[in-house]
Design goal:
- It is a single chain.
- By secondary structure, this protein is mainly α.
- The chain has one domain (8-110).
- The chain is built from 6 helices and no strands.
- The termini are far apart.
Length: 111
C-alpha cells in the first residue's frame, strides 16, 4: 500500500480503546469527531457502534435507569451537536444511520 495509509480501521479502534482507559467520555466523543474529520475511517458507523458505550459513560451516570437504546440515542444526538458546532452533519461523514428515530429523539428530549 502506498504511503502507509490504513486500509482498515484497526488503528482507530485501538485509539478509541486506549482513550477509554485514560480519558473521560466527553473527550472520547471529541476523539470520535476528530477521527471523522481528519482520519476518514473506512467504516465510521462500525466505529460508533463498537464504541458507543465508551462514549456514554457520563450520560449513564446522569441517567442510571436509562435503557441502552436511550443512552445510544443520547450519544448520537451529542455527536450530531458536536458536528453542528463545526457546521457539519452526520451526512457529511456517511453516518446518518446512527441518528435516532423521531420517537427516540422525543424520548431523549423529555428525559
Amino acid at each position: 500500500m502506498r504511503l502507509g495509509l490504513l486500509q482498515d480501521d484497526a488503528e482507530w479502534h485501538a485509539a478509541m480503546n486506549d482513550a477509554a482507559h485514560t480519558a473521560m467520555s466527553p473527550q472520547i466523543r471529541l476523539l470520535y469527531i476528530v477521527l471523522l474529520e481528519f482520519c476518514s475511517p473506512a467504516d465510521p458507523i462500525a466505529l460508533f457502534e463498537q464504541h458507543w458505550l465508551q462514549l456514554a459513560d457520563d450520560f449513564a451516570r446522569r441517567h442510571p435507569t436509562a435503557q441502552p437504546d436511550v443512552l445510544r440515542a443520547i450519544v448520537a444526538l451529542h455527536v450530531e451537536h458536536l458536528l453542528r458546532q463545526k457546521n457539519k452533519n452526520l451526512a457529511d461523514f456517511g453516518i446518518e444511520r446512527i441518528s435516532p428515530s423521531v420517537d427516540m429523539r422525543f424520548c431523549c428530549a423529555t428525559s
